[in-house]
Amino acid sequence: MQNLTATLLVSCPDQPGIVAQIAQFIYQNQGNIIHADQHTDFSSGLFLNRVEWQLDNFRLSRPELLCAWARLAEQLQATWQIHFSDQLPRLALWVSKQDHCLLDILWRWRSGELRCEIPLIISNHPDLKPIADQFGIDFHCLPITKENKLAQETAELALLKQYQIDLVVLAKYLQILTTDFVGKFPNIINIHHSFLPAFPGANPYHRAHERGVKIIGATAHYATAQLDEGPIIEQDVVRVSHRDNVEDLIRKGRDLERVVLARAVRLHLQHRILVYDNRTVVFA
Amino acid sequence: MQNLTATLLVSCPDQPGIVAQIAQFIYQNQGNIIHADQHTDFSSGLFLNRVEWQLDNFRLSRPELLCAWARLAEQLQATWQIHFSDQLPRLALWVSKQDHCLLDILWRWRSGELRCEIPLIISNHPDLKPIADQFGIDFHCLPITKENKLAQETAELALLKQYQIDLVVLAKYLQILTTDFVGKFPNIINIHHSFLPAFPGANPYHRAHERGVKIIGATAHYATAQLDEGPIIEQDVVRVSHRDNVEDLIRKGRDLERVVLARAVRLHLQHRILVYDNRTVVFA
Amino acid sequence: MQNLTATLLVSCPDQPGIVAQIAQFIYQNQGNIIHADQHTDFSSGLFLNRVEWQLDNFRLSRPELLCAWARLAEQLQATWQIHFSDQLPRLALWVSKQDHCLLDILWRWRSGELRCEIPLIISNHPDLKPIADQFGIDFHCLPITKENKLAQETAELALLKQYQIDLVVLAKYLQILTTDFVGKFPNIINIHHSFLPAFPGANPYHRAHERGVKIIGATAHYATAQLDEGPIIEQDVVRVSHRDNVEDLIRKGRDLERVVLARAVRLHLQHRILVYDNRTVVFA
Amino acid sequence: MQNLTATLLVSCPDQPGIVAQIAQFIYQNQGNIIHADQHTDFSSGLFLNRVEWQLDNFRLSRPELLCAWARLAEQLQATWQIHFSDQLPRLALWVSKQDHCLLDILWRWRSGELRCEIPLIISNHPDLKPIADQFGIDFHCLPITKENKLAQETAELALLKQYQIDLVVLAKYLQILTTDFVGKFPNIINIHHSFLPAFPGANPYHRAHERGVKIIGATAHYATAQLDEGPIIEQDVVRVSHRDNVEDLIRKGRDLERVVLARAVRLHLQHRILVYDNRTVVFA
Q1: Whether C249 and C129 share a structural domain
Q2: CATH code, domain with B76
Q3: Which one of C232, C237, C245 has the shortest CB-CB distance to A237?
Q4: Residue C72: how many CB atoms within 10 A of its CB?
Q5: Do B19 and A36 touch (CB under 8 A)?
Q6: Which of B17, B26, B34 sits opposite A40 (nearest CB)?
């Protein structure tokens, strides 16, 4: 299954015959579908679809494919993306001082779990530079203050452009991005250390302990202008009890944060997520 | 979505164009697909598919549909089933003395969670007849001994035929069916009170306690001639500790058994399960 | 272990020697401890303890025990309860129109999972009276309007007194109790159909669906004047996906509500819960 | 709570007054108990206890404590251990070629989650030496063949002695130890990549896939002469579906292996585990 494939993510108004038309389009050009999943949201009348097919005997070149598909997409009034499996997404990791999410993603990347390139790490602190060095990744330290935030974001945007980054992963970056930044760079995944919408904002473990919950969680979501209100990609939870103090919650939470963020990044890299109406459809 | 629908379950050798042909078949007859899911098992080269579409404007009558589809299916070398949403499957519950799975399924049935008819309860003990009476369901008591087992199974098969039963649910029946019986009536779902393949056979909770496991489970599977080795439909687990004695395991396990069996029955009634190679594909 | 036992729940300022003094008190009166669990909250300096011992050879009568213990408790500045295993707590179930939590608790009660008496069901609707009749439990229907709320609560308090109720279980009662009522009757367990503090208040499943969460939950807590803010006893969760509409969330949630409420009630009936600082210590 | 503490783990025949005698022993010597947990196995009549107390004002020196306790223990016919919080257990990691469990434990160790010393890594392959170097840990490569197994185990025992190792952690070592070795060095924790007792032995993920289970697991246990039959310390599970092939199971399983092994090692290092009758009591 390491063959060359194309993956189409498409959403359009629901109407009879969409599946037939898309499948026909691929079949008549001699593509062999290896994964197809769809969802219809009946309340909004939206049809969402992921199709992946082998390109081995495909009769269209990539430009021809894009051109031919665009014509069909226009008829369907569809928004869409097409990704080719030999074009690895380029990922930038943004961190602060905590290393657990960073190390976890780097380890999964090196072990082959995450198919992408990681050319860039950005941090507001110099602490994790040795890890970047160890993995041979460029590390840029851009400390943030109230005064320099906008200027630093401009510099960060320039770095994202320079390194041709497709996806920013906030691996415990712990800084709020401006609305302007989020508007200019749409593909940002954040890990929040609570079971959203419980405990948005700062210090969720302290507040979870104070509230006396019996389960804590972590949430990976796309960053939007509204803090902690972006489309949720993945969540997971773990039991706690009265024996767990705040430090225990933080420790147990780290394990959650690592796996939840890693799962979300992997789903995105495999082009399995469609966003609509501040929600995600995950074709897992 | 309470519209009249047809559901096609199909498995056939994988080849390019299957999705297109099936979708085209439905579309050109003016069916609107509301659910489609597929799976390709690359090791065995098998393609498996579930498609559900609305029949409101469908141009073919049911006999015409079956006839037309059968021709396409033959080309695809497919095995298949087609179900119509207004034909409720008929279910028989087989029980012994424990009432928790029986009551749970009957409650879900009455509350509308399980779309089926339940005209028949069979038991080897008279104990649960009052429950059958309360729900207005015929109750047949067929006590099993070593001597009469084959004769009773013949009587049971006759009852299944008489009541036109599509699915037998062993809701803690606790008797082993003969290979002959299983061969004659294929649609049987059993609940086993362990996390199979751990602790097959008798007294799984006692053996789980003795082994000192930290998690116990329950498994819903199709019954086959080999005891507890049929295709697994659904499993779930719950944590236990050294504080839990065998009675606690039995109590905690009852909650598992109820939900795991109910989920499996619901999936079957919605025609979401395909079996191949002693495994299930569950289009949930 | 069905022997006659006494259970002491105690909380007091932490100091050296508490365990020794309590254990010594029981031992010198020839009680055999069969369960002991303790917790020290170091931030508040509070010591919390549950001890259960066999009364078979205990040298003190119950009045003597209470009297002798009270003297020691005064030295320890302790608040405490002592419960005897042959005095079954008396439970009132409050319901509205939904039957799943009611039926579940009644089934567990009849099967011996819940050691208590259930002499009273109160509802603001007549719908579930047949279930009360079937289990031989008195059913009182007290419809609530804005105008009669206070008067009806007075009538309800009178019923709780008349039936000598120790614990009220709001099994989907769906009405808010006044601060006055909660102040007058402290032992009330409520089931909320969300993973609190996410989605407090009305329509949590609708809001969970709108927010696009990947996991939903249920929470059993003691009722306090602040709606949905009382001490949490138990929580559990289940995964959902984009395929689940609101009706699916409600259906999946029902299973959660049943088990979470049942676990909380069982823990309370076994005197395993201590409340302090709007949190619970659960000696499970 | 980073004060100096002593932890007593004790098991003895159950009889009245044990808790009182142990608590009294600590109290009269001015120890302040900060954690106490106990369990009585009524079927075997065994009492098991963990007590941890602060040594700040304790009146006995360590030799005096051991001497005085030994006398009481003899009366109670107890087997016991006493550990002091400033004596860090010394841990040896045994690995093969897979790095995920090794890296995970080393990361937790460096971040302070695991209070121990790790002076030694043993492997039958040289592959992971760079990781040992990076963390400044001695690495000994002892390749195993059928012929040299006994000789190598002798060398390994010598290393364990030389490095004064208290606990061996088989972090995916993938070699079977001889009965002789296990008899000579009792504290060995192994991680098995299945939900034991399902799929003991080799290739559990392949066999889980073949069996079509819907949940896979991992098990941390003490190694005994019988392969995969030692006392279970911790288990956890994750859902899988027909979409997961063997590689997916291996990938998902790695996450389980890491956390399950780490939890077991942490519990052991905190002296929270008592073994009896091939089972564990975990005072978590």
Answers
A1: yes
A2: 3.30.70.260
A3: C237
A4: 16
A5: yes
A6: B34
Residue C220: give its domain's CATH number. Answer: 3.40.50.170
Mean pLDDT in order along chain A per 10 residues (284 residues): 87 93 95 92 94 95 97 97 97 97 97 97 98 97 95 97 98 94 95 95 95 97 91 98 96 97 98 97 95
Query: In B111-202, which ranges are continuous DSSP H helix?
Result: 129-134, 149-162, 179-184
pLDDT tens digits, D42-93: 989 999 999 999 999 999 999 999 999 999 999 999 999 999 999 999 999 9
CB-CB contact of C58 with C11 (8 Å) = no
Prediction ipTM score: 0.94
Q: Taking the CB of residue A227, how many other CB atoms lie within 10 A of it?
A: 14
- Find tokens 């008396």 and name the residue: C90
Nearest chain C CA: its distance from B107 CA (Å): 8
* CA-wise closest residue to C177 among C131, C223, C238: C223
User: Which of D8, D27, D72, D239 is best to mutate for the C interface (most C CBs within 10 A)?
Assistant: D27
* Domains in chain C, number: 2
- Asked if B113 reaches chain C (Cβ–Cβ under 8 Å), the answer is yes
Cα torsion at A95, A96, A101, A107 (round to 10°)?
60
Do D34 and D103 sit in the same domain of this protein?
A: no
Strand partners, D38: D49
A67: number of Cβ within 10 Å: 11
Residue C171: what are its φ and ψ, rounded to 5°? Answer: -95, 70
What burial letters (b/e) apply to B17-53, b meaning 16+ CB within 10 Å? Answer: bbbbbbbbbbbebbbbbbbbbbbbbeeeebbbbbbbb
Query: Do residues C47 and C118 both lie within one domain?
Result: no
CB-based contact, B31 to chain A, within 8 Å: yes
Same domain, C173 and C264: yes
Q: Which domain, by its residues, includes B28?
A: 5-84
Query: In terms of Cα–Cα distance, which of D83, D84, D85, D90 is closest to D10?
Result: D83
Going C149 to C150 to C154 to C160, the CA torsion angle's sign is positive
Tokens for C2? 């069905």
Q: Using alpha carbons, select from D118, D87, D93, D89 the residue that is nearest to residue D267.
A: D89
Of A211, A243, A278, the CB nearest to C212: A278
